[in-house]
Amino acid sequence: MMLKVTELTKIFGGLKAVDNASLEVGQGRIVALIGPNGAGKTTLFACIAGFLPINQGQVQFLGQDITGLKVHDISRRGMVRTFQITQPFAKLSVLENIAVGSHQLHARRADALAHARTIAERVGMPASMLDQPAADLTVAGRKRLELARTLATDPKLLLLDEVMAGLNPQEIHEIIGIIRKIRDSGVTILLIEHVMHAVMSLSEHIYVLSYGKIIAQGAPREIVNNRDVVEAYLGRGAADQMGAEPAQGVEHA
Ligand SMILES: Nc1ncnc2c1ncn2[C@@H]1O[C@H](COP(=O)(O)OP(=O)(O)OP(=O)(O)O)[C@@H](O)[C@H]1O
Ligand SMILES: [Mg+2]
Fold first, then answer.
1. Which domains does the chain carry?
2. 101 alpha carbon to ligand 1 midpoint, in Å?
3. Contact (Cβ atoms closer than 8 angstroms) between residue 5 and residue 48
4. How far is the CA of 207 from the centre of ligand 1 (A)?
5. Which residue has its alpha carbon closest to ligand 1 atom 7?
6. What is the mean pLDDT of each run of 10 residues along the chain (253 residues)?
């Protein structure tokens, strides 16, 4: 198992943001983590990747217990996350931003920059974009940069936090293709996403988080027909009203 999270709990003050959550991601898989706004998805990612200390539970990566390790250690072992709110180094060029990730493997600046170029190509960034300051990027450009920055560390497992938020349908179509290609190149992917058709077409297994708890898991088809899932998104009683229709078109606030 590439990633195994066991009974993880994260408490903020009085709030159990993640409540006894367990999940597994097998090597080479694309697995999705979905759930309403505020369910605890980003918090769970932060706990898994070492950005937040946890109150209870265990995180195993490639068969080793990594609970409590530093972000830097975890990233060197091959697990990196993207950020929902991207924060590129605004004054650095796009290429230099990607090279920050490449530096983990390439100590020399020239090597890091060369490596960054190959990564930019993998995420479909045209060469003309690479010398721009990162601050000038559109939302879609920023999302690709975020993907490239993490990919540049040569990860085994990528945790993607809403890399499709704010993109138009064409841009979403493109990024779905890029994510597939990344997986086909041997990188395992766990993704948080509100764009349901993307989740349905990309993922082989879905976990649903609601109020910090995993309330359902299964293949995409099982999940869209699950009453608990529909109600988590739309409120109690919704499943009856909707004939348990999939939670499609649920927008990210
Ligand atoms: N650093 C923090 N301190 C206190 N509370 C926090 C902190 N980070 C998140 N929370 C709270 O924890 C809960 C889960 O937040 P989180 O951002 O993980 O949800 P999410 O599922 O990622 O939501 P979204 O889909 O909107 O991104 C929310 O109630 C949020 O307000
Ligand atoms: Mg979030």
1. 3-86+156-242 (3.40.50.300)
2. 26
3. yes
4. 17
5. 12
6. 98 97 98 96 98 98 97 96 90 95 92 96 93 94 95 97 95 96 97 93 96 96 89 75 51 46
